[in-house]
């Protein structure tokens, strides 16, 4: 299973960021879903999954998700079950305003940020306590935010 949750980082910042839902990368989840889908049904399942992301608001996305599950249950119950188990991950982007959905669901930038945090922690070597990792990650996040804010001007 392909997933982007790194246990060490999740444990270190999990208590600090209580309301955040983990969102699996769309491409990783698509690969996982296709692994349980019969080859002949893959284009149809892919199209169904994409309809979830094409909705205008939170309620519509959740309603479309339910319609997709219903459509899949008859023909592909294993795929419907797989999709239902991933509901929270797939719909995590809907907790944000519509204007930022594209940035949230296309989390390539998050991957870059994770690599930068990993690079910095590798340079430091040993992290003594939870406060140290929070300060280090906070510094990286602040630096990335400043770079993003400068670039948007």
What does the model show?
- The chain has two domains: 26-97; 107-151.
- It has nine helices and no strands.
- It starts with 6 loop residues before the first helix and ends with a helix.
- The longest helix is centred in the C-terminal third of the chain and has 22 residues, at 130-151.
- It is mainly alpha-helical and 153 residues long.
- The model is unreliable at 13-21 (pLDDT under 50).
- 12% of the residues are buried.
- It has helices spanning 7-14, 26-35, 42-53, 58-75, 77-85, 87-90, 101-105, 108-124, 130-151.
* Strand segment tally: 0
Q: Decide which structural class fits the backbone.
A: mainly alpha
What is the helix/strand order?
HHHHHHHHH
Distance between the termini: 39 Å
Low-confidence segments, ≥5 residues, pLDDT <50?
13-21
Radius of gyration, in angstroms, nearest whole number:
18 Å
Beta strand %: under 5%
Average pLDDT value?
A: 81
Secondary structure tally, helices: 9
Number of domains: 2
Major sheet details? none
Q: Name the helicity range.
A: 55-70%
Structural shape = elongated
Oligomeric organization of the protein chains: single chain
GO molecular function: DNA binding; transposase activity
GO biological process, one term: DNA transposition
Keywords: DNA recombination, DNA-binding, Transposition
Pfam families: Transposase_mut
Topology:
Elements (H helix, E strand, L loop, with lengths): L6 H8 L11 H10 L6 H12 L4 H18 L1 H9 L1 H4 L10 H5 L2 H17 L5 H22 L2
Helix pairs in contact: 3-4, 4-5, 8-9
């Amino acid at each position: 299973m392909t997933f982007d949750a790194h246990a060490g980082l999740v444990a270190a910042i999990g208590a600090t960021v209580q309301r955040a839902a983990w969102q699996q990368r769309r491409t990783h989840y698509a690969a996982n879903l296709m692994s349980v889908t019969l080859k002949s049904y893959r284009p149809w399942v892919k199209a169904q999954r994409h309809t979830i992301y094409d909705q205008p608001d939170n309620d519509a996305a959740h309603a479309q998700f339910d319609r997709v599950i219903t459509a899949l249950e008859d023909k592909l119950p294993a795929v419907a079950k797989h999709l239902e188990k991933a509901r929270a991950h797939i719909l995590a982007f809907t907790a944000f305003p519509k204007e930022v959905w594209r940035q949230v669901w296309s989390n390539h930038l998050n991957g870059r940020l994770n690599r930068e945090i990993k690079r910095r922690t590798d340079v430091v070597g040993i992290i003594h306590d939870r406060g140290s990792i929070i300060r280090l990650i906070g510094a990286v996040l602040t630096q990335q935010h400043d770079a993003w804010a400068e670039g948007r001007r």
